[in-house]
Amino acid sequence: MKIIYLFVSLVFLSCMEDPLEPVNSQEFDEMEDQDTTKNDNPLEDLTYLALGDSYTIGESVEESKRWPVQLVEDLRSAGVEISDPQIIARTGWTTNELIGAIDASNIQQPYDLVSLLIGVNNQYRGYPISQQEEEFEKLLKMAIEYAGGDKNRVFVVSIPDYGVTPFGQSRGPEKIAKEIDAYNALNKSIADTYEVRYFDITPISREAINKPEYVANDGLHPSAEMYDAWVGLMYPKVREMFPE
Questions:
Q1: Which residue stretches of the chain are H helix?
Q2: Is the pLDDT of residue 181 over 70?
Q3: What number of CA atoms fall less than 13 Å from residue 133's CA on the CB side?
Q4: pLDDT tens string 17-71
Q5: Rounded distance, CA 152 to CA 142, Å?
Q6: 4 has which bridge partners?
């Protein structure tokens, strides 16, 4: 898979808190680990655009273990000819930062599949939930547009609960869980309004409290095993989007 790094300059307010920081002391929004991934193979004509943050770029897992990449591999195993996912995501991004990155990327082509997973950093930074409401809806509209206006080729993924991780356990897991639930309820409501499929992977993420193998080595992000469980939930319905 060919990797092209998407370098986006974003302006931060000086009063803004830093995004979630992994327990291994690496910066949570380290640009070097983020990219836009795309494939130039003309023989694989279906295309997939994945929009998000650290959970979509797969912070702390190998590129082949990111959930969008695992999803594509499962589709290929079923005979679906689809290119490597194009990923616009960066660890630490909030909704407004994802919007800015999308605008800077100058996306033009319609995609056969588009996914959206965003909001955890809004919650972590303490942004008003009204900002999530406004900007998530804008992002979902953009996702539908990038799917050629076909809402049936778009899906939303819920925000996982990082409060069950070693990182989150020291930062008020009950409060985190309550706020994540509120964000997810909002995102699902917006997805339902636009009749876009919504995958609730949050219960899977909460299994990490009893499954340490579901947490990456940084003590915060999902492991390859957790991403595999997510894909197991998503795959049957995504596969139905591409009838033979």
A1: 54-57, 67-77, 95-105, 120-125, 129-146, 166-169, 173-193, 202-206, 224-240
A2: yes
A3: 8
A4: 444 543 332 333 333 344 444 444 444 489 999 999 999 999 999 999 999 999 9
A5: 14
A6: 36
